[in-house]
């Protein structure tokens, strides 16, 4: 009897231990964290346990690849292996139900004690329902083996469908090229958030990226450019690679919209086939960013044959009904001087070159119609008139989209000030290099693609919106992801969900970040913002406040080490009275630390003014002709006196941004003299020039950087005259021409918020 009692006692203890172990391995899902937020969520009684014992079931074979994809995601992210088509009382059931009162992308997700049911009018809806289910599962932090995990999911009913049918992202692969593997990885990510359009910008002045067999030089010559440092940059996709990407996207219910940008942005094509230009000559793939004046000749039949043939081959690669044909940024200077273009205008009674461009676009649209395709163009094509069937993508603002929608044309909104992800998402003084602008996460999230100026009866013409990523300054894959996420995720919710709550979105986003980490996806974490410059000077003491664009914790160190999640937490403005090295970063709820920014805090004193009396106003200018990149490598003996200039702007002719420059004027310029300082003070100077010396201090050093955004420097100066030296190098750096920058210097007192120009009356020699 004693033996039996001991046996049952041991068995009971074993069961208790096993039960506790199992309980410890349960991940309880407390909140429904899904992005984009479903439109209807109804809590129910009970829970469903998702584990390796769960099976999945479907009858319609069209759901097989969707189920396989979900199974793979579940395995990769959560370590779960579920069985296929096994009937059980712990099952995920998928089915197509055409009787549901939902659109083709809608779904019905119902979670009960024994079953998760996903029903939708189409396979696409089932796919989206599974993505919502997947997002409900948090990443495990318990440290136990993946195969032992059970997810306790609350019983819930979700009825969901999108507000807009066009939810897109555009990637420019001309300025910088990205591999097939990279594109596939991000198609996976975008599909998780129900993004359904991938606009692939394949051709531009800086590179042709699409194999066209009838025109082999497009990739042999047009895919390569010689960058300003002499290196060759290139890459293109074969037709088989393109078909592979298109098929991969289709399996994730993403439609690929190719862009063949005509008649402008064609320098890469003209480098390969100069006969397509109004003036045939030797052309090179454009190194500069911006707008090229050499475009396709609208008067030559060869041009129309070229466009038609390219479209014929594209039709074998891109099955989706929409094709983007560009039409933006098309200077018509060459057409005005071209007899064939003028003859074409006369032949068809076209009043001006805008109408000639409209003629070209209409001819291209006919070519597309022959393949049952619909044409999209950038909003500039409205200038000369469009056909009744043309669709508009509005990027310069919303005005073009408003005009087109009210006239009965379908429109995709993508205004640069809201949806250009190559723009800064935080303070440019702390963020990595970006194109410009200011498009923080909240601005993307709150964008409404239907402006109030669109008539109620015409609002259905707004198909949706998309975010665009132009890649002039995006050389690395990781930086592209940094710009895309989480802003593309915010856009997915703004276009899918009918109700929007930014604070709630941020809470759900915080739960999502560990999943992006598991997928090895880089993303933006809001950085501490505040100071304009990395070297902060003070006379007695300095107070430095920081803030972030989102409510995240900031951590810092002052001992030279990099901050971690456990470092001192920022609680208010710093006050320093001694030299200090401050390193500061943000940290997310799950412990991931942002990029670290370092600031040198330096105590200083007023620099004495000169006793010298100026000889007169103006600065002495010396010029060294040639192509220079590194200021330290310029031989001083090359500089020759060029006289006296009375203003900084006189040091160089400024060219209109983005347009052609005069490369024969490449040079280095030194301006020397004195600057008159109005009063004793601590000053901040700002400039795009390579280097600025005041007295013996190097105040601004832009050397070897892209001089697109100004840099700042601080110096304490006594009232009076101080020696001034400015180095300006006219060259091209990473596609940016300094000819586009006006030579100038700005300043402000340390307590001021607005900069003032250093004017002629402050400059002496």
UniProtKB/TrEMBL annotation:
It comes from the Bacteria. SUPFAM superfamilies: (Trans)glycosidases, Anthrax protective antigen, beta-N-acetylhexosaminidase-like domain. GO terms for molecular function: beta-N-acetylhexosaminidase activity. InterPro entries: Beta_hexosaminidase_sua/sub, GH, GH29D-like_dom, Glyco_hydro_20_cat, Hex-like_dom2, HEX_bac_N. The keyword Transmembrane helix does not apply. One of its GO terms (cellular component) is membrane. One of its GO terms (biological process) is glycosaminoglycan metabolic process. Belongs to the glycosyl hydrolase 20 family. This is beta-N-acetylhexosaminidase. It comes from Zhouia amylolytica AD3.
């Amino acid at each position: 009897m004693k033996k039996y009692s001991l046996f049952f006692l041991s068995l009971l203890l074993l069961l208790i231990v096993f039960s506790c172990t199992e309980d410890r391995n349960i991940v309880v899902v407390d909140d429904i964290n899904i992005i984009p937020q479903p439109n209807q969520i109804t809590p129910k009684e009970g829970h469903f346990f998702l584990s390796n014992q769960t099976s999945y079931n479907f009858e319609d074979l069209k759901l097989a690849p969707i189920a396989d994809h979900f199974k793979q995601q579940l395995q990769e992210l959560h370590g779960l292996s579920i069985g296929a088509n096994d009937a059980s009382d712990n099952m995920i059931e998928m089915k197509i139900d055409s009787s549901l009162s939902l659109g083709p992308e809608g779904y019905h997700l119902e979670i009960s004690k024994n079953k998760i049911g996903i029903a939708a009018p189409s396979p696409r809806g089932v796919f989206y329902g599974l993505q919502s289910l997947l997002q409900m599962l948090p990443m495990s932090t318990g440290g136990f083996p993946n195969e032992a995990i059970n997810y306790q999911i609350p019983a819930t009913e979700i009825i969901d469908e999108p507000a807009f049918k066009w939810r897109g992202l555009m990637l420019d692969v001309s300025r910088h090229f990205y591999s097939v593997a990279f594109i596939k990885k991000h198609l996976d990510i975008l599909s998780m958030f129900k993004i359904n359009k991938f606009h692939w910008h394949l051709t531009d002045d800086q590179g042709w990226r699409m194999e066209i067999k009838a025109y082999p030089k497009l990739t042999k010559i047009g895919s390569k450019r010689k960058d300003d440092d002499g290196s060759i940059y290139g890459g293109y996709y074969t037709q088989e690679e393109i078909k592979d990407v298109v098929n991969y996207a289709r399996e994730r219910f993403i439609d690929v919209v190719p862009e063949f940008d005509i008649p402008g942005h064609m320098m890469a094509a003209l480098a390969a086939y100069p006969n397509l230009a109004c003036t045939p000559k030797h052309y090179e793939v454009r190194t500069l960013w911006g707008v090229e004046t050499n475009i396709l000749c609208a008067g030559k039949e060869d041009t129309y044959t070229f466009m038609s043939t390219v479209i014929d081959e594209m039709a074998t690669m891109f099955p989706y009904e929409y094709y983007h044909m560009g039409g933006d940024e098309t200077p018509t200077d060459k057409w005005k001087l071209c007899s064939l273009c003028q003859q074409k205008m006369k032949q068809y009674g076209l009043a001006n070159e805008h109408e000639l461009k409209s003629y070209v676009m209409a001819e291209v649209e006919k070519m597309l119609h022959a393949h049952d395709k619909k044409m999209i163009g950038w909003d500039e094509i409205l200038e000369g008139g469009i056909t009744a069937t043309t669709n508009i993508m509005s990027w310069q603002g919303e005005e073009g989209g408003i005009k087109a929608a009210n006239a009965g044309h379908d429109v995709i909104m993508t205004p640069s000030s809201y949806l250009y992800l190559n723009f800064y998402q935080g303070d440019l003084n702390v963020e990595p290099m970006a194109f410009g602008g200011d498009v923080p996460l909240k601005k993307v999230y709150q964008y409404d693609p239907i402006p109030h100026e669109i008539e109620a009866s015409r609002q259905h013409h707004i198909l949706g919106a998309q975010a665009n990523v132009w890649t002039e300054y995006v050389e690395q894959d990781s930086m592209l992801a940094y710009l895309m996420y989480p802003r593309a995720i915010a856009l997915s919710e703004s276009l899918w969900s009918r109700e929007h709550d930014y604070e709630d979105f941020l809470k759900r986003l915080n739960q999502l970040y560990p999943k992006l980490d598991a997928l090895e996806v880089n993303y933006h974490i809001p950085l501490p913002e505040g100071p304009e410059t990395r070297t902060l000077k003070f006379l007695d003491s300095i107070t430095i406040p920081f803030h972030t664009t989102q409510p995240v914790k900031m951590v810092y160190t002052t001992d030279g080490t990099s901050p971690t999640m456990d470092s001192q937490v920022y609680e208010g403005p710093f006050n320093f009275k001694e030299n200090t090295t401050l390193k500061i970063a943000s940290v997310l709820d799950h412990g991931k630390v942002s990029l670290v920014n370092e600031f040198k805090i330096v105590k200083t004193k007023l620099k004495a003014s000169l006793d010298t009396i100026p000889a007169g106003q103006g600065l002495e200018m010396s010029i060294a002709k040639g192509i220079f990149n590194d200021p330290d490598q310029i031989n001083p003996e090359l500089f020759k006196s060029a006289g006296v200039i009375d203003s900084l702007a006189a040091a160089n002719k400024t060219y209109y941004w983005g347009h052609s420059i005069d490369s024969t004027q490449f040079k280095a310029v030194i301006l020397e003299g004195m600057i008159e300082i109005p009063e004793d003070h601590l000053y901040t100077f700002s400039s795009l020039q390579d280097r600025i010396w005041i007295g013996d201090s190097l105040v601004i050093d832009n050397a070897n950087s892209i001089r697109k955004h100004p840099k700042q420097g601080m110096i304490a100066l006594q009232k009076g005259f101080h020696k001034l030296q400015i180095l300006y190098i006219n060259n091209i750096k990473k596609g940016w021409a300094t000819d586009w920058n006006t030579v100038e210097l700005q300043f402000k007192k340390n307590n001021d918020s607005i900069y003032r120009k250093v004017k002629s009356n402050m400059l002496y020699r």
